[in-house]
Amino acid sequence: MEKLAIVILNWNGAQMLKTYLPSVLHYSRDEATVYVADNASTDDSLALLKDSFPECKLITLEKNWGFAEGYNKALSQIEAEYYLLLNSDIEVTHHWLTPLIEYMDSHEEVAACQPKLLSAADHDCYEYAGASGGFLDRFGYPFCRGRIFDTVEEDNGQYDYRAEILWATGAALMIRSKDYWDAGGLDGRFFAHNEEIDLCWRLRIKGRKIVCLPESFVYHVGGGTLPKSNPMKTFLNFRNNLTMLYKCLPESELGPVMRWRWLLDYVAAWEMLLLKKNVGDFKAVYRARRAFKRWQKDFEADRKAIQASRKAEKIPEQRRFSLLWQYYVKGRKTFAELP
Questions:
Q1: Which contacts (CB < 8 Å, 24+ apart) does range 21-27 have?
Q2: What is the pTM of this model?
Q3: Are 144 and 132 in contact (CB under 8 A)?
Q4: Per-residue pLDDT tens for 255-285?
Q5: 3-state helix, strand and coil shares in percent for the chain, rounded to the nearest 5
Q6: Burial of 293 from C-beta contacts in 10 A (0-12 / 13-18 / 19+)
Q7: Residue 287, Cα to own-chain centre: how many angstroms?
């Protein structure tokens, strides 16, 4: 069994691989085996990998399974103590793996960790997708040390301390293979978006810990597959976030939170239409809520199993406040300002 397998899931990302895979191979070769799992790309990704990166191990999938199930299919073919799920648009740095491996080796209670995520466009700023570790508010809205909604902070070392978090970014997620499969892996039905939050939340419910280790840092481009304004991204985010809440919220919170989300989601939809003139995102929110209601019954068994595995009613990293209230009413735009 290998110690660490770095697995990059690729779909039509030849240019990203050409740009960023060399840094991964150069700075990881002594500590990990690097895999690329290809989700049935139609560009020249496979030819590029075979011709330019023969040292990289290749897994070819028969169709585009999406992010979640694509990783499940790929990781099932790899035997390693640790997996490191890495986006194709990540530039890694010297000795980035050492702190992650050493910490995981010495902290058996920790299921997963992430490095600090900085912006490839501006190395002095955090990157939206994960910054320095993720949390949730009481209504399921994700935020990070270094990013709340669209406000991304400069990195002045303010979060350069290790912290237990609720979720680690899927852009650079190191996880024990045993924990990955014990939790059932990523939920392939999500296709993409919120799947890593869902997995990490399930692990926290089981009593396992998630940590950010900012002494390791990488640079992330972000938005490479679906741009932020894409209605499909809006649809997946809303549908999957509601599904995650249904699966993971304790019984005492499920009803109240879902009623609030009904209101908040429709307020968000009309704000998209009336203030931003974004008809595509407006329709996507309505479609997402209908899609959630249609498939909610398919997750009843999941919810029952997850709740049966619960070690504690409350998880500290799911904060008790409303992020919308703190951000828009109280004007608290940074993590350090939150209660």
A1: 21/53, 21/56, 21/88, 23/91, 23/92, 23/93, 24/86, 24/90, 24/92, 25/53, 25/55, 25/56, 27/92, 27/93, 27/94, 27/95, 27/96, 27/97
A2: 0.95
A3: yes
A4: 999 999 999 999 999 999 999 999 999 999 9
A5: 45, 20, 35
A6: exposed
A7: 23
- Residues in Cβ contact with 240 at an 8 Å cutoff, skipping those fewer than 6 apart: 190, 193, 194, 195, 198
CA distance 51 to 66: 25
How far apart are the C-alpha atoms of 305 and 312, rounded to whole Å?
15
Token pair 């679906």 is found at: 226
Judge contact between 127 and 119, C-beta under 8 A.
yes
Both structure tokens of 57: 């191990």
Which pair of structure tokens corresponds to residue 273?
Answer: 């239409």
Q: Convert the pLDDT of each residue in 137-163 to its tens digit.
A: 999 999 999 999 999 999 999 999 999
Paired residues of 57 in beta bridges:
35
Angle at 199 between CA 194 and CA 204, to 5 degrees: 120
Q: What are phi and psi of 3, to 5 degrees?
A: -75, -55
For strand 151-152 and strand 142-144, is the pairing parallel, antiparallel, or unpaired?
unpaired
